[in-house]
Design goal:
mainly alpha
């Protein structure tokens, strides 16, 4: 048997490499355009607008993302991951635990004020995706413990309280964004003032969850 008779892997064809590179560029263009459009108009936007801005056809868009929800969740998770990494880095670099906590809320709401789809995701599903929501919960818990250890946070505040507060303030960003831009900053200041350790009056106990007829 000669060397010519031995089977060797065929080199990848240039055309195939070109098609793959085109597909990667198209996907990146779709993601970039979708990030802008979802931020501007929210999840209800027509995907044809995303295709138009990304410069691809509808068939190409659907090959990469079969449904609008697939595209939305991918974009939100990508944006959330970048934001949370920045927030974590900033909090770690902040020595004062209270400043780290307040800076987190400030950064979160500032980001949301410019991204309608992110705010909607918090009010409809608790966060961009379940994994993002869990990562955010863990981060908030770390910030709460830091403040508790420094006696800066009222002792009966729980991580659930802070997560619910973030959702409430997110809703305020959404509902006041057009009529009273920046109103959320006042609400944030009021809320943070109520969290400080100088407030010693016990918080009301949460009402136990009870099943209503038909809910199981």
């Amino acid at each position: 048997m000669t060397l010519a008779d031995q089977s060797t892997p065929a080199p990848e064809q240039p055309a195939r490499r070109g098609r793959r590179a085109d597909a990667e560029r198209n996907r990146a263009a779709i993601m970039e355009a979708a990030g802008v459009v979802f931020a501007e108009q929210g999840a209800a936007v027509d995907v044809r607008e995303i295709a138009r801005r990304s410069g691809v056809g509808m068939g190409t868009l659907y090959r990469h993302f079969p449904t609008k929800d697939d595209l939305l969740l991918t974009v939100l998770e990508d944006q959330f991951g970048s934001w949370l990494a920045d927030a974590h880095q900033q909090a770690t670099a902040t020595e004062d635990p209270w400043q780290a906590l307040t800076g987190f809320f400030e950064q979160m709401l500032t980001t949301q004020a410019g991204n309608r789809a992110v705010v909607e995701s918090y009010t409809t599903r608790g966060g961009p995706t379940p994994s993002c929501a869990q990562r955010c919960y863990t981060f908030i818990d770390e910030l709460r413990i830091r403040c508790m250890d420094a006696d800066l946070l009222r002792p009966d505040v729980t991580t659930d309280d802070l997560v619910l507060l973030s959702g409430s303030l997110s809703q305020a960003v959404l509902t006041t964004g057009d009529s009273h831009p920046g109103q959320w900053r006042r609400l944030l200041r009021i809320s943070l003032d109520g969290l400080t350790s100088r407030n010693t009056e016990p918080l009301p106990e949460p009402t136990p969850h009870t099943d209503t007829p038909g809910n199981h």
